[in-house]
Amino acid sequence: MSEPVVEVLKASKTFGAGEGALAALQEIDLTIRAGEFVSLIGPSGCGKSTLLRLIGDLTPASTGEVRLNGKPAAQARRAREYGIVFQAPVLMEWRTVQRNVELPLEISGVARAERTERATAMLRLVELSDFAAKYPWQLSGGMQQRVAIARALAMDPALLLMDEPFGALDEMTRERLNLELMDIWRRTHTTVVFVTHSIPEAVFLSSRVAVMSARPGRITRLIDVDLPQPREAATRNEERYFELVTAVREALHQGGADEATAAAEGLGTGASTGEGEEDAAARIRAEGYA
Amino acid sequence: MTTPVPASAPAQGPTLLDAVRLRRQEAVTSGLSRRRRLLAVAVALVLFLLAWELFKWLGGDPWRLHGTVAGIQIDYEHVPPFQFALASDLALPHIWSILGAFPAPYQRFGDPTWLVLVGAATYTFKEAFVGFVIGAGLGLLLGIFFVRYRILEQAFSPYVVASQAVPLITIAPIIVIFFGNAWTSVSLIAAYLTFFPVTVAAMRGLRSADPRAFELFRSVAATDRQVLTKLQLPASVPYLFAGFRIAAAAAVVGAIIGELPNGLPDGVGGQILQASQYYVTGPERLWASIVVAAALGLVAVGLVWLAERLVTRGRYRSAEV
To answer: With an 8 Å Cβ cutoff, are B231 and A92 in contact?
Structure first.
């Protein structure tokens, strides 16, 4: 078996303290090995985005440990060992496409010539070479998200974190980008952690699907997706694909049933622990950036 | 394409931002709508001048117009039906009297008034410009510090707000006492009026970036300085220019008012002071000075607008106040 890239060891995350404390994640254990494509799927408020942010050291774990490439997550982040893609492209509107892709390289102090070369290569990878000189607003939503992927891959990271990257796109674009992402994944051999709430998307892309449930957020099932590689449009017509979609759906509903039982027993908090925009904004302010 | 801008979470405690709200707008103005805007401005001016003369026609002093304009002999006499104190020739001169003041010699056998007023406007512009640069720089620095260190914002924002509540006319003499009777004092008075809108705009702009953009910078281990220079400052450009536009007009007002306690005769403020002292013998000269002061404000705001166009070149959406 290949090296573990991500190790989450009994990691919990609680927002707030005392009465109002929300247990977003409870004692998560997860190991992801090099070259895997792991989807985190679950209902809103199950903490899947929070788990992704723990892995990226964008928010610290309350208890437990997160390791990347054998290092504590904070150290790995400082060594720029992963790239991240959000639900929105989050491009800098004042920079051209090319300069957006160069941004992480620029921050890392990579020399200009190398920056240009890497960004050009990444834009070729996402097939946007012709748009290098354009500004983000001149691109469609799907193209903008491909720029965001190119930017995340610019540092040639061993790990790519994706937080519902295609969630804001229409179904057609989403399916096309899923195919493109498979192509990129095959070519770059990057390990991917992919947050989604789309069951077909999770099954189509992943080598493993981690099914989560809410209140408190935990992983209820790990499902191996044994569909043959490479995944292609035809994969979506295979019987095994439908079986796996059903399996993931049932696992999700199973988690939901647990949740209902918990609520009936008065254990549920009733409040959503979802990482909404406001949570993200509040957290970032708390961390002293803005 | 627009990226969804997340609603910012409510800030803790009162902030400067509550004072002013900036509104983001698409600033894609086509040539046609710009022409329409110019037309609207012209129509508004004509309507304003017509209302002015209508007011005088109804309640001013008797009209006695005799002379030739562009070769056409004009003989018009009219006794207004009412008598409004505000519509008299002393209170509200005819438009053509005010316009006539510009070519008239300023002093007997001297330069025409318009030349003197343009000279005064140039002098005041210099004061206002230096004041604007000082004030905008200070305002931006304050904004950066307030955003970076919330404790500073909480400690100082009541004083910053209070500084704007104190009438400038009471501050100006003190600045003159501190820094002497020179145009530099006037610039400092202008700066005093300039920094506030820039601080407010900077604070809003520096916080305007998508929260996920901050996470993106964190994910690549950006330093605080890189977050400031590569994310927060570029993101605040549209907000800053909105603040600069208000600040530019404020700098002109500050410079004109600043000239009054100084007794500096060289600027527009000096002209206004002098013209108001001799108002009874020539009311149109004060009105001419006011027209020049207003034009100076427009020029200042126009220059900021021009700078914004050059800097943003259509890359940014603009923030309107």
So the answer is: yes
